Amino acid sequence: xxxxxxxxxxxxxxxxxxxxxxxxxxxxxxxxxxxxxxxxxxxxxxxxxxxxxxxxxxxxxxxxxxxxxxxxxxxxxxxxxxxxxxxxxxxxxxxxxxxxxxxxxxxxxxxxxxxxxxxxxxxxxxxxxxxxxxxxxxxxxxxxxxxxxxxxxxxxxxxxxxxxxxxxxxxxxxxxxxxxxxxxxxxxxxxxxxxxxxxxxxxxxxxxxxxxxxxxxxxxxxxxxxxxxxxxxxxxxxxxxxxxxxxxxxxxxxxxxxxxxxxxxxxxxxxxxxxxxxxxxxxxxxxxxxxxxxxxxxxxxxxx
Amino acid sequence: xxxxxxxxxxxxxxxxxxxxxxxxxxxxxxxxxxxxxxxxxxxxxxxxxxxxxxxxxxxxxxxxxxxxxxxxxxxxxxxxxxxxxxxxxxxxxxxxxxxxxxxxxxxxxxxxxxxxxxxxxxxxxxxxxxxxxxxxxxxxxxxxxxxxxxxxxxxxxxxxxxxxxxxxxxxxxxxxxxxxxxxxxxxxxxxxxxxxxxxxxxxxxxxxxxxxxxxxxxxxxxxxxxxxxxxxxxxxxxxxxxxxxxxxxxxxxxxxxxxxxxxxxxxxxxxxxxxxxxxxxxxxxxxxxxxxxxxxxxxxxxxxxxxxxx
Lengths: 304, 310
Fold this sequence. Notes:
The complex is a heterodimer.
Chain A: H1 2-34, E1 43-49, H2 54-67, E2 71-78, H3 80-89, E3 94-97, H4 103-113, E4 117-132, E5 139-140, H5 142-149, E6 173-177, H6 182-190, E7 202-204, H7 207-216, E8 220-225, E9 233-235, E10 237-238, H8 245-249, E11 256-264, H9 269-278, H10 281-289
Parallel strand pairs in A: 1-2, 1-3, 5-10, 6-7, 6-8
Antiparallel strand pairs in A: 3-11, 4-8, 4-9, 4-11
Helix pairs in contact in A: 3-4
Chain B: H1 2-11, H2 17-57, H3 63-68, E1 72-73, E2 81-82, H4 85-116, H5 119-134, H6 137-156, H7 164-188, H8 192-200, H9 205-216, H10 218-234, H11 237-242, H12 260-267, H13 276-309
Antiparallel strand pairs in B: 1-2
Helix pairs in contact in B: 2-13, 4-7, 4-10, 5-7, 6-7, 7-10, 8-9, 10-13, 12-13
């Protein structure tokens, strides 16, 4: 008897929520129309995508709003795939992506919006391989990485890499990313040569989570943007090359990648100004400050 | 009908016409409210199934693979595979472990609150337990990710703290309040004459509980446990953060797992609307819905069985 009452309670609660939601949407237009920030009409730029770039995008947004109070930039993460999907649906102005847009996505965009994507390369990132700071390993080859992460790969123990961990424990804990991540796809393309990942890796939802898990787990290995390095983890050399600004810019680091912004067609108005600002000195300084590699100086926009 | 209504109105002139029609309208509102649960459930199932249906007839898709393969590669560049067995096993293993932890605590708590403590303690406990139920799941997930994972690593020596045990503890903490409050209501519903009769026969408090009250309230207690199971099966955010999110069949409780719900939450955002990946995720939703439906149905049958015997 009792739980029938409870069901009725749940239903009435649901009804209440539905009514509230209805009222909420009813009120919205008058609310947002009347109140701009400070009385003026603030332009809002919607920006979503890569988790690798979310800190950088946030830093840009804050600095830009300080210099141009009439523009608000709303930044969201979720992964490069999420950002591009939102761009295809037309719900954002700028999509951040740590991988190149796929031909299938370009096609969908044309079908959905009738526009071609416009790509802006705004910086570079070395995809760093992280291990726990007590791990004696210094260098790893792309082949070894593939054997660790690839479906059917042979390496599952640290001893196979010639390493004895100080705390004991030999099984490699693979830390990876969820499949909407551009970092995940970049890794699959450039390290696994488009083969599939071994199942059973811990698929984290963000770059920071990867580094945190590796920092807490002596037997773990993971990959993430170099901007997320902390003092609890160590970045490995890949094929003998350490991930640094120089090796990323001259592309000797084997798994360096470009960071892009995408817009629907040629950007105009506030979005155009914002991207030009990112490509000029203040924007590029922030790229360096957040731990990534700016584009070469001769490609900077002169007008800030 | 109308004639009789008019007749009534004539006989009692104090009741104006608007009151009669108002009453009719109100009756309809209540009727709609009563039927709405059915409409909601059917509508939800319809909309979820409508999104999933096209994949069922697509020739690249095999239902056997979907149900019985452990290989989940929805975005593979070379060989896309949609096998959810590991996710289903993950869901069940976390839920079962959570219930192993939550049921003793929940029922014990219910018995304590309803039978063994004074009125002041009872009121205080009830309020605190209800507060426990009001903590949002994302906060629980946060606790699992940051606090519990470190404790688990320290105590068990597991290489990774976000695992099945972590998820189960978090889920158990989330289900306990439900089990306690519903279980307590069920025990309260046992007539006092049973208690008095038991005590009059010389039973101790404890004998009274397990010989009289638990058998008398077992329908309600079972319902309490099953609502707890429902909470655990459907929980998403907390398990997404606390279980480690690894697609494989766990071999120990310290293994990371991924659940059906967490998988949908993590992947639906990226899957372009209308793509096979998107449809398969909706089909996963249908699978989840079927699982909870079967659990509820089984519970109903069990409760009915108990009722007949009793």
